[in-house]
Amino acid sequence: MSQTFLLKTEPSTYSFSDLERDKRTPWDGVRNALAQRHLQSMRPGDEAFIYHSVSDKEVVGIARAIAAPRLDPTDETGKSYCVDLEPVRRLKRPVSLAEFKAADWNQFDLVRMSRLSVMPVPDDVREWILKTSEN
Description:
The structure is a single chain. The protein has helices at 16-22, 33-40, 97-102, 109-112, 123-134; strands spanning 4-9, 25-27, 47-52, 58-65, 70-71, 81-96, 118-120. By secondary structure, the protein is of the alpha+beta class. Strands 1, 2, 3, 4, 5, 6 and 7 form a seven-stranded mixed sheet that branches. Strand 3 and strand 4 (58-65) form a beta hairpin. The protein is globular and about 40 Å long. The N and C termini lie far apart (28 Å). The relative contact order is 0.23.
């Protein structure tokens, strides 16, 4: 059974457009212990919403994990993992953080733990994101 995650990135560092251009990328540089646990639970085929943080604060696209987590080559300690992603599709329209708050998703980690960069997405939140992005 596949899972869904939300992965945050600063668009000035690496955007969903960059992922579309590159067609594949390692999602690396994650150092927070809780975010690492979530990242390490990703499996090939799992879906990931890509969220542009800092300036845009919105979910902009969907990616897919294409390999099991592996050691992150950017971590000199050798303790962190990364996962390879490919783009699936851009959302018809982005879904903003303000919309999450207005829809009262206050228990969702995106609202509750604003600094967490990798988080699971419950099925009801996933469906809401997809539906909202179509309107």
